[in-house]
Specification:
This protein is mainly β. Helix content is 8%, strand content 34%. The protein contains 2 helices and 8 strands. It has helices at residues 33-37, 122-127; strands at residues 13-18, 41-49, 53-56, 72-75, 84-88, 93-97, 100-106, 110-114. The strands form 2 sheets. Strands 6-7-1-2-5-8 form a 6-stranded antiparallel sheet. A hairpin with a 2-residue loop joins β6 (93-97) and β7.
């Protein structure tokens, strides 16, 4: 069963399972937590994606007051579940759901994604978060 089945991401937001954080340098020196907290860019795995930016229906521009003309459409998201995203830490909002830490990041806060074209099952993502080098 999907542990996130009761959550629905809204708009142009993305739910990210953050990396544990880099605790050592490339040379093997341990970094104190205060150094890791000061990083501007962080990474994590995308576990849920909103529908996108809401856009008005172009066909209803003439008569927006009509009830049947209020169909909402969304500009599709470029981010997909399973992507590894680098995002601005300042843009992220931290939440805890079922004793697990997640971040909600708006699309504008995501700098880039790395995508495995073969995909990764969500249950595998939630069982293993990506380790930093």
């Amino acid at each position: 069963m999907d542990p996130l089945q009761h959550l629905k991401v809204i708009g142009d937001r993305v739910l990210i399972l953050p990396d544990a954080g880099r605790q050592r340098t490339g040379a093997g020196l341990y970094l104190p937590p205060t150094v890791c907290e000061k990083e501007i860019v962080q990474g994590g795995t995308v576990v849920a994606v909103g529908p996108g930016t809401p856009m008005p229906d172009p066909e209803s521009a003439d008569e927006p007051w009509r009830p049947d003309a209020r169909r909402l459409r969304h500009l599709p998201m470029e981010v997909e579940v399973g992507d590894y995203a680098l995002y601005l830490k300042k843009a992220a909002i931290e939440i805890t759901y079922q004793e697990r830490r997640y971040l909600i990041v708006p699309l504008a806060g995501i700098l880039l994604v790395e995508r495995d074209e073969h995909g990764v099952p969500l249950d595998e993502l939630l069982g293993n978060s990506r380790e930093s080098d």
